[in-house]
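An instance follows:
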Amino acid sequence: MIEETLSPRRLDRWTSFRFLLGIGKNPLVTMRRLHDSYGPFVELQYPLSFQQPPRHLGCIADVGLYRTIFSDSDTWRSVNISYRGLKHHASRRLGAGMSRYRGLRHSYYRRLIAPPLSQLAVTAMSTEMASIAKRQVSSWQRGAVIDLIPMARHLMQDLAIGLLFGDDRDRARPIAALIERQVAAAWPTHILNHLVWVTVASKQERLILDWAEQKRGNLDPKDILSIIVNNPDEYGDPATRDRISGLVSFTFGAAYETCQNALVWTLILLTQHPQIAAAVADEIRGAIGRDLPTMDRIGSLPLLDGVMKEGMRLFPPVPLQFRRSIKDTTVGAVSVKSGTRYLASSYLINRNPDIYPEPDRFRPERWFNINPSPYEYTVFGGGGRMCPGFTFAQQMVKIALAAILSQHRVAVVPDARIDYRTNITLMPYPAVPIVLHDVADAPAATPITGRFRELIQLPDAA
């Protein structure tokens, strides 16, 4: 069907209410049920809207509709669906990051932080990135049960801090721990997490501002925090404390939090596909030997590239994306009023069977022959608000995978339960117990349980 002719399936108030409740509790499964039942374009009525026509939430799982909305950043702005925090409080200020900016402010700060995230700058980081990853992964303990989540978190934080935030680990790590609280509070129904975060938000803001003061007067063009602190705002005035705290909270957290989840999910998938795990490990070791996993050695490895992209396709770091119209427009065949919200399921668009046959299966080899657009592979968004750090993120995940798989064989503990949470990002929860083995050990899949199996079709033997 041509996108311009698509009309939404409008659900009644009671049916909409049930789906809205489901989105709050289990958004990925609910969105799949919604679109499987009613098609790629659905309108849900807000239960307490009695105007005519009633206010609604548009839900899309269609490439063409996604392109229409996400390619027009003048009409559609990002929506912070999380708890906004208390008025005149740190919890409100810390939520006012890049995703809330539009117009001149958004374009200015996007350009300001672009240089250290450029293709040229990221490529130049390759050796240092590989050295950090290899050194840290070499210290991982073999033979004992360990939780993969904190190991991946520590690795990705080290890479982000070391390469984008001045290598200031002593100041950055306490802030990262508090950003984890902020992320946990991001989904609207997580009320307890909201309350917990409000109690620590002031401390998080204070630590960010203290860190920023250490950078003032010392501009480092490779350090995003230094760039923000030592440049004026979009009007030429000094950056305010509120601007610094919101921007740093967003950019620092985004630099590693999504990547750590992508790394963990990809390694989980490899443990359940031992033949692929063995093949990609052989490919990596054949390319690097005992050397560092730098991009000149691993950047063109086809299976490693496919493994990384396929892991992110199946478990996109941000599986749902919200937009709000800021002026009257059209979507498909319908008129849309200013202020209308749309929920795009990146998770489902990434599983379009016309682009990805057997869409729920882990098939890295599919990437040998396809090159989807950002609107068909929505891991990093699309259009003018596409993630500015996508090159850094892909390189970081690829080098981390190469460092791990060249030194260890990863096995999940048999019958481990692996669940997931959607707190804006898609994260494994509460733990991923693994045992590391020598790379020469023969790989074998171990049975695992948990709600993550709702999201993937594993081999019959897994």
In short: The mean pLDDT is 92. The chain has two domains: 1-90+319-349, 96-314+357-455.
